[in-house]
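Feature request, filed as a ticket because there's no other form

It would be nice if the structure record came with a short human-readable summary line next to the tokens. Right now we just get the raw output. Example of a typical job, pasted below so the devs can see what we mean:
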Amino acid sequence: QVQLVESGGGLVQAGGSLRLSCAASGRTFSRYAMGWFRQAPGKEREFVGGISRNGGTSYYPDSVKGRFTISRDNAKNLVYLQMNSLKPDDTAVYYCAASQASSYYRDHARPSLYDYWGQGTQVTVSS
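Raw output as currently delivered:
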């Protein structure tokens, strides 16, 4: 069992930056690949970043590539999402999630692949 708690959301102007954090409970954090998703009102949950168990490989969709960076600290049970050059379209609730799936390298963008989810943190980007 893994519990995830996100923090770091807030209101920021377009062009600004935010860093989200996700704290995981338990001693098995390094067994999980981690992902960040977002969901805006009326839209489906969207993958915005993923990272392998040891942090050696990261994944991004084209919509955030070059602007968002995911990282993790297995010693502290933390995963981060650094978001730069934010746009109003980035406004959403952001969730972190944990996956043990062996197919993570291929299926990391699929919400159904993840076993545990945090409660989400709101990010609002004003124009």
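Something like this underneath would help us a lot:
The chain has a mean pLDDT of 96.
The chain is about 5% helix and 45% strand.
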